[in-house]
Design a protein that fits this description.
This protein is α/β, with parallel strands linked by helices. Helices cover 40% and strands 16% of the residues.
């Protein structure tokens, strides 16, 4: 059995209920490309959460969801504003820029979150043909630094965006962790506060693969199906993505998984603090960011793999998952204590 580490919630396995969901739909033939009853049922689930007027498109992965969201709402002369830590800027190999041809403009942030004041500095050059036209603001919820936007913070961003006839995209790869952290329904910090398009993730919270792009105004998604096909995100056997979401929402499996992951991060943070380790970001979801000596980090990684975050300041990232056990944390901290006292 492979040891559970703290590198990424992507490294965890698939929840048994999701595996069972594959078997349930793996019977006989159904029409492909989403024209099957399971996909329609999954879309209805999303409508119960977000309202009847939404449009939903299933894709393979988070990068695909972000690219589809951006490409549907922009043209090549537009620019996209996002925190410098955003996944679309740091971890998608230039995919959003290559596929959409838009300019991505990073906004420096110390905690992964941006504010209207930060955004306003980039809101210039409108109607000037020598300047890329600001069109979309992208934020992550949970952020890449483990922090969580409040509904009020998101509304303020949406208000300034809409004031300038711009749109707001939310990268919700860890949206379940955010909902648990805020103790709010998904709508309360997405549609209700002005988000235009949402990348709704589940892979980091117990699903095998597949994400959903949710447009809160159908007028904005007129061409989404074409962009999905062009970006190689249209799955022929769509029922196997839809089945996962059906299981994910049944009996609030998403909530149980995210609650556990968040709780494990809180325990991990508390225990490493007791060892004198400095935590650099507020622990609001399932990520812990800390400062440790490079030599200790290298030795610790051999026992429990994880990623360095900012090598210049000796910062590392520890992620917990739906299947993290308290025993994993206990043994990890014992090893860390041993290295600190060596």
């Amino acid at each position: 059995m492979n040891k559970r580490g703290f590198a990424s919630d992507n490294n965890s396995g698939v929840h048994p209920n999701i595996i069972e969901a594959f078997n349930k739909v793996n019977q006989g033939h159904v029409v492909g490309y989403g024209n099957d009853p399971y996909t329609q049922q999954a879309i209805e689930k999303f409508k119960k959460i977000f309202g009847e007027s939404i449009d939903v498109y299933f894709v393979f992965n988070g990068t695909g969801a972000n690219v589809l969201s951006i490409s549907t709402l922009t043209q090549s002369f537009h620019s996209v504003l996002a925190p410098s830590t955003a996944h679309i800027i740091t971890d998608e190999c230039g995919s959003p820029e290559k596929i959409t041809n838009c300019k991505l403009i990073p906004i420096e942030s110390s905690n992964g979150k941006i504010t209207p004041k930060m955004i306003s500095k980039q809101l210039h050059g409108f109607n000037f043909e020598h300047h890329s036209q600001p069109r979309l603001i992208s934020i992550s919820q949970v952020t890449e630094l483990g922090t969580v936007y409040t509904p009020e913070e998101i509304r303020a961003i949406c208000d300034i965006a809409h004031q300038y006839q711009m749109y707001v995209h939310m990268d919700g790869a860890r949206i379940a962790n955010a909902a648990v952290s805020l103790n709010l329904p998904f709508n309360a910090f997405t549609r209700d506060v002005g988000i235009d398009v949402l990348s709704f993730g589940g892979t980091k919270n117990g699903m095998m693969m597949g994400e959903a792009v949710v447009f809160f105004n159908k007028k904005l998604s007129v061409n989404a199906k074409y962009f999905r096909k062009q970006s190689a995100q249209l799955f022929s056997k769509m029922r196997f993505v839809a089945a996962q979401f059906l299981a994910y929402f049944e009996d609030d499996l998403w909530k149980a998984n995210a609650t556990h992951a968040n709780n494990m991060a809180a325990i991990l943070a508390r225990k490493v603090k007791e060892l004198g380790v400095e935590i650099t970001q507020e622990v609001q979801a399932n990520g812990v960011f800390a400062i440790i000596d490079d030599q200790i980090s290298e030795q610790l990684q051999k026992a429990y793999f994880f990623y360095p975050w900012d090598v210049n300041r000796h910062e590392v990232r520890w992620m917990t998952s739906f299947d993290t056990k308290e025993e994993d944390i206990h043994l990890f901290c014992l090893k860390l204590k041993e290295l600190l006292n060596a």
